[in-house]
Amino acid sequence: MEKKITPPIPVDRWFQDQAAVQELRETLNKPSFQKAVAILKEISGPSYGNLMDPEKNSQRLAWYAGYRDAFNDLEKLTKLPENSRNSLTTLDEWTHIE
Question: Are 33 and 27 in contact (CB under 8 A)?
């Protein structure tokens, strides 16, 4: 059975659904979710044992950065953009070109 692939929802459409934004905000504020985030960040972060192996240390730092980015992006989805410059569709790395 093939899985039907659906395109991602545009960010602007996400912010039009105020109920979804509010529901996500409530989920992110739940103590159980915050505890799970803290645990995932803690176990994915570098440790003393990994510092001895550069390859393992790099992998751990990459996982840690991925978790941080994912949770920070979820947090951004709970706050309405003030204007298009603050939108998630604008990459921070490229704003210096404008």
Answer: yes
Answer whether residue 86 shows pLDDT above 70. Answer: no
63 Cβ partners below 8 Å, 6+ apart?
44
Asked, for residue 91, whether it belongs to a domain, the answer is no
Query: Quick one: pLDDT at residue 6?
Result: 74
Neighbours of 60 (CB within 10 A): 19
Q: Using N-to-C axis directions, what is the helix angle for 54-76 and 18-29, rounded to 10°?
A: 130
Give the structural domain span for 75: 20-79
Number of structural domains found in the chain: 1
